[in-house]
Description:
By secondary structure, this protein is mainly α.
Amino acid sequence: MAEMQTAISDPDCTDCRDSDLIESAARELYQTAALFVGDETEAMKLVEETVASVEMDPCADGDAARSAATSDLVHRALARVAALRAAQMHPSAAVDLGGCVETDDLSAAGITREQLDVLLAGSGRVRMRQWLEGLGPVERSVFVMRAVLGRSGAESTELLQQTTGDPWTETHVGGAYRAALCSLASSLVHSTAH
């Protein structure tokens, strides 16, 4: 019987091991975790757990690797928030302020995607973090999933069901998102007036 060789070629990975790319991915994960949990230490733990658990080929598709890491991080962050604030991270805690904003559109808060990006990473970062701290865990989590990460209502509902085990519906998620958007709109109007 002929000997079978299973040589695995070592692709040229010099570009994909670039420390700038790795730092950028880690920074994105940390920022996402911090948006969910608000606590730097907790955010760092979530990133460390994600990096340790997600198997990624450094030479594979970078977008796929980032997507896998982000997905794992979102599950971990939601589970952590639900564990820390179980009574407040239940569908019954979802609020719909009714009438303040009519739709589940970011523009209902009078803000564009570009303006949100500036608030998240630019000059408005401190104000945005303070605003997030004032939200309940449901509204905060749903806002991060919907507005920041671009998840749909259905995707957000499914993520919440998976991580909390509670009977979330799109109605709950929509109400929490509209409450967050209403709060954001109010905050922006208030900050403009001062």
